[in-house]
Amino acid sequence: MQAVDLSTHPGHLARRLQQAHHLLWNAMVSEETTSPQFAVLNALTAEPGLDQRTVGERVGLDRSTVAEVVTRLLRRALLDKVRDPRDGRRSLLRLTEEGIRTHKALALRTARMNQVFLGPLSEEERQALFGLMRRVADAAEALRVTDAGGGRPADG
């Protein structure tokens, strides 16, 4: 059997991109706050008072991952959790003052990091890349949702 050309395997390239992103994130953004943690802070900046499940949906994190991320942010006092006055079974999340300051600082650093990360591409190439990545991610998400529903995605 011959070796395969991994440069034609999207999973291999996605992993390499993730590794590069992780290295840049730690060097330029934060060694303390992870990219998923920032995504949760960002979602709650955009929409304060969401419940944990909805935050996970907004940022594309599964239930167990968003639960872990929220727990860590609560421990660091970047989030507050309060009972929903309309439904006492539900808790709503809001950024604390420290969470707001942290988000603001990280948002500036992520903008700089993204400039470095995407530096090899022209603006037109960046937009094309984002469009293609969103299409693939959305299609993969649809497959995951279909599979979670007990059905199998349609072949085609």
Structural class: mainly alpha
Coarse morphology: globular
First-last Cα distance: 28 Å
In percent, how helical is the residue content?
55-70%
Give the H and E element order: HHEHHEEHH
Largest sheet: 3 strands, antiparallel
Tally of DSSP helical segments: 6
Mean pLDDT value:
92
In terms of DSSP E residues, the strand content is 5-15%
Stretches with pLDDT under 50, minimum 5 residues: none
Q: What is the CA-based Rg, rounded? A: 18 Å
User: Strand order, biggest sheet?
Assistant: 1-3-2
Task: Give the tally of β-strands.
Answer: 3
Name the quaternary structure: single chain
Fill in the keyword field for this structure.
about 160 residues, mainly alpha, three-stranded antiparallel beta sheet, 6 helices, 3 strands, about 10% strand
Overview of the structural elements:
The chain has 156 residues and is mainly alpha-helical. It has a three-stranded antiparallel sheet. The chain starts with 9 loop residues before the first helix and ends in an 8-residue tail after the last helix. The relative contact order is 0.10.
Topology, please?
Layout: H1 10-29, H2 35-46, E1 50-51, H3 52-59, H4 63-75, E2 79-84, E3 87-95, H5 97-117, H6 123-148
Antiparallel strand pairs: 1-3, 2-3
Helix pairs in contact: 1-5, 2-3, 2-5, 3-4
What's a concise summary of this model?
The chain has six helices and three strands. The protein is mostly helical.
